Amino acid sequence: MATKKKKNIPKAKAVKKTSRRSKLILDSKIPDGPIAEKWDKHRFNLKLVNPANKRKYEVIVVGSGLAGASAAASLGELGYNVKCFCYQDSPRRAHSIAAQGGINAAKNYQNDGDSAYRLFYDTVKGGDYRSREANVYRLAQVSVDIIDQCAAQGVPFAREYGGLLANRSFGGAQVSRTFYARGQTGQQLLLGAYSSLNRQISLGKVEMHTRSEMLDVVIVDGHAKGIVVRNMITGEISRHSAHAVVLATGGYGNVFFLSTNAMGCNVTAAYRAYKRGACFANPCFTQIHPTCIPVSGDHQSKLTLMSESLRNDGRVWVPKDKKIAEKIRKGEVKPNDIADKDRDYFLERKYPSFGNLVPRDVASRNAKEVCDEGRSVVSSGLGVYLDFADAIKRMGENTVRERYGNLFDMYEKITGSNAYQNPMTIYPAVHYTMGGLWVDYNLMSNLPGLFAIGEANFSDHGANRLGASALMQGLADGYFVLPYTIGQYLAENGIDNRPSIDDTAFSNVQEQVESRIDTLLTINGERTPTSFHRELGKVMWDKCGMARNKKGLEEALRKIPKLRKEFWQNLSVPGENAALNQSLEHAGRVADFLEFGELMCRDALQREESCGGHFREEHQTPEGEAKRNDDNFSYVSAWEHKGEKKIPQLHKESLVYDEVKMTQRSYK
Amino acid sequence: MNLKLRVWRQDNAEEAGGFEEYEALDISPDMSFLEMLDVVNEDIIADGEEPIAFDSDCREGICGTCSMVINGVPHGGQQGTTACQLHMRHFSDGDTIVIEPWRATAFPVHRDLIVDRTSFERIQQAGGFISVRTGSVPDANATPVPKEDSDLAMDAAQCIGCGACVAACKNASAMLFVAAKVSHLSLMPQGQPERTRRAFSMVNQMDEEGFGNCTVTGSCEAVCPKEISLDFIARMNREYGRALLKKGCS
Ligand SMILES: Cc1cc2nc3c(=O)[nH]c(=O)nc-3n(C[C@H](O)[C@H](O)[C@H](O)COP(=O)(O)OP(=O)(O)OC[C@H]3O[C@@H](n4cnc5c(N)ncnc54)[C@H](O)[C@@H]3O)c2cc1C
Ligand code: SF4
Ligand code: FES
């Protein structure tokens, strides 16, 4: 069982239980003062935990990706006792491992005019003015420390011949600030954080629980004080108490069934926290990546991203004529036989100055548009060409191979097609979720003691994330922000503030978890968890995907509850709880997605504007571009759960822009 | 295409396991190998049986979770390819495919094709790190690293920790994996101060976990999905020899 010591919460505290629900105030706790001084000043003002007392505090970190591993390692090193959980068999396999492109930092090593201020500015603008200035500035500020930290851990970053670090420019940035390790930056950064985590494990400061799925969070007197976990090998349900709980559980892109996320990525931890009172912020903000390999059939289980860098030299096109497109789909004509005059290089045509390099959301929407017009070039109807013929003509096949060889190989492995000879086919796919648990400047949710870091929170990317900025945010939160800010909460609340796992709050939650598992196992219906997941994903993609409108969202809000009802009546999960049972794991995650999907649609429906990755068809400029409504929508939408079958309550945190002037994006 | 599968089924580490046969019908050449198993599993569940348990997560060859021996070869025998990257176009109608878990004393079976690789974790906890405190580090460019060294370190660091090298080895040796880890850090200037200690602790832990000895048959390199070179084993042997010498002197 989880804990040894038993400590009771002082009795007086147990009285004020209900007040939190009725009057929720979202205080972002942004410090006063000039933007560049806020973080330093705030750090100075934060209470410190006496070093001798640190070992008396227990902290739970759920997740071992970049955010979780860096936080757990840093907290252990500070002296706290940490328990870290992940669902994989090793912390090193968290989904951060899959990031390819790189990590941003305002080092200005290239002497090209970069600075913390410029990175801040680009991030706020790129996020389409829906993120918090103060958080973003801090992110830009600490970005430089991340690179130092990772280099010291032995991360083999790309180097120049002089031995200094190499950079590349990424996602249309005007400066070269992206650090990388071949095409495996996420892997190498995660291995770095994992090695620091391992060191703390070996020192006994972090207790690592792998193949362990958190199924609920435990709230005692309004504070998050623990979690309930299922051992994925034995099915054992255990309780773990702590002084504070940190969720670093990643993004929820798999609500769409198909995404570039790993198979196990889920919303369970964050959603369970939401159902216990934590607000969920901007759930409808999702990022669709334009260059993924198209779906090849109904069997498809996930999608694979092809690096954005391909758009530097590849040209995106479809035939001008629908009839020709149809012939291509039937295999009657080959792309290379189509004359240039019959091709529509639609990005170059519509955006003459940015061409194929328009931002992710613009490129994605345009691909959808031409496919909707019937001009797709793959049999499913969802795919456009990314053609390297001109690049090969211009630079020679060898140069193209040098630049993109590994990507072309990967493409061939999956599709069986040689992209030196035939154009690649690509289509947008769900890639990242900007929404997440609402947190204040200290990364604490509105539930005291519950922190959220990395992709699991909403804080820094607004309505659209810039390339190479998620890795930066995960590590900023885990190494350089949370380890300080959590101290304030711990110091304020004291060492005695950790309930025993025998507290009724813990046994109640465990009972609820167990009864839910029992229900899942005994419905004995006909449909598998995958079939429900796939159906939900299709509704989400069609109605709450790249383009959204009122009618479609309302339709989704009718469809999802119906599907959920069928799920709880007609689900089939073979086997038992007391063993490794992958259908049961999947069923639990799908159950949460089936509720969460509804929240996303609700959020998308209330946001009557287009911004970043959220495109409402009703709100576009005459040229078909996203049209923001700053007067009415410059706020964070934070949803509060009000009980089963009740409509959640929307809270609004207004966003104020003192530094960056709000403008409409234009890429014409 | 239609295929026959012979799949290893085993309830847990204590029970004995055995092969079961399944039909995989209407398989498209565009499916990945794991998607083919997904399809078979959906049918198994529809029949009220428990699906074949197998590990996977990223399904793009980077997380190192997927782990199965396909027709006798870990990851299925396409060069530089993990099981999750293998596609059905490499098989033909009527084929029989034999699917088994990694087999090694240090990797006990959890269920069906899923094994316990925590021995790899313990090896890395024994010393696979550079001891640095968060925040108290020099500027990244204060320590230039020759590009050749950094590139070579990266070659080693690409290891995804899948364990195919162990599964392929007749001695179930973990040398390629440990060599990749030790070499990565010992090639970087930042890794120098703990070089001796690291090699010593990691190799000793590897021995304690019950992995076999390396007789340099090279089967690990042949199946490694990241094409980690055998040269790293020679490099690690030198590191370990050096560590022994240093220990002896002190
Ligand atoms: C293919 C791909 C490429 C990308 N490329 C880039 C890039 O080049 N640059 C960039 O900046 N960003 C990139 N991103 C985004 C970036 O990788 C992620 O946003 C980031 O790594 C998320 O890190 P994290 O620590 O928040 O979460 P994750 O790495 O997803 O970790 C989540 C952790 O939570 C655990 N967990 C989840 N649920 C539970 C539960 N219920 N119980 C217990 N444990 C749980 C998991 O086991 C895991 O350890 C990419 C993303 C993808 C999908
Ligand atoms: S050395 Fe190769 S086969 Fe062995 S664990 Fe690493 S990647 Fe897998
Ligand atoms: S599932 Fe990640 S490497 Fe195969």
**What share of residues of chain A is helical?**
25-40%
Tally of strands of chain A: 19
Number of discrete helical segments of chain B = 8
The small-molecule ligands in this entry are:
flavin-adenine dinucleotide, iron/sulfur cluster, FE2/S2 (inorganic) cluster
What report would you give on this structure?
In chain A, the strands form 5 sheets. In chain A, strands 5-2-1-9-17 form a 5-stranded parallel β-sheet. With 668 residues, chain A is of the alpha+beta class. Chain B has 250 residues and is an alpha+beta fold. The complex binds flavin-adenine dinucleotide, iron/sulfur cluster (SF4) and FE2/S2 (inorganic) cluster (FES).
Helices and strands in order:
The complex is a heterodimer of chains A (668) and B (250).
Chain A: H1 19-22, H2 38-45, H3 51-54, E1 58-62, H4 66-78, E2 81-85, E3 103-104, H5 116-126, H6 133-152, E4 178-179, H7 185-202, E5 206-209, E6 212-220, E7 223-231, E8 237-241, E9 244-247, H8 268-275, E10 280-281, E11 286-292, E12 315-319, H9 322-329, E13 343-344, H10 346-350, H11 360-372, E14 384-387, H12 389-395, H13 397-415, E15 424-433, E16 436-437, E17 450-452, H14 470-493, H15 504-522, H16 529-544, H17 550-570, H18 582-606, H19 630-633, E18 635-640, E19 649-654
Parallel strand pairs in A: 1-2, 1-9, 2-5, 9-17
Antiparallel strand pairs in A: 3-4, 6-7, 7-8, 10-16, 10-18, 11-15, 12-13, 12-14, 14-15, 18-19
Helix pairs in contact in A: 4-7, 4-14, 5-6, 6-14, 12-13, 16-17, 16-18, 17-18
Chain B: E1 3-9, E2 18-24, H1 33-46, E3 69-70, E4 73-74, E5 96-100, E6 109-111, E7 114-115, H2 118-125, H3 147-157, H4 164-168, H5 175-187, H6 195-208, H7 219-223, H8 231-249
Parallel strand pairs in B: 1-5
Antiparallel strand pairs in B: 1-2, 3-4, 3-5, 6-7
Helix pairs in contact in B: 2-6, 3-5, 5-6, 5-8, 6-8
The complex binds flavin-adenine dinucleotide, iron/sulfur cluster and FE2/S2 (inorganic) cluster.
Iron/sulfur cluster binds next to helix 4 and helix 5 of chain B.
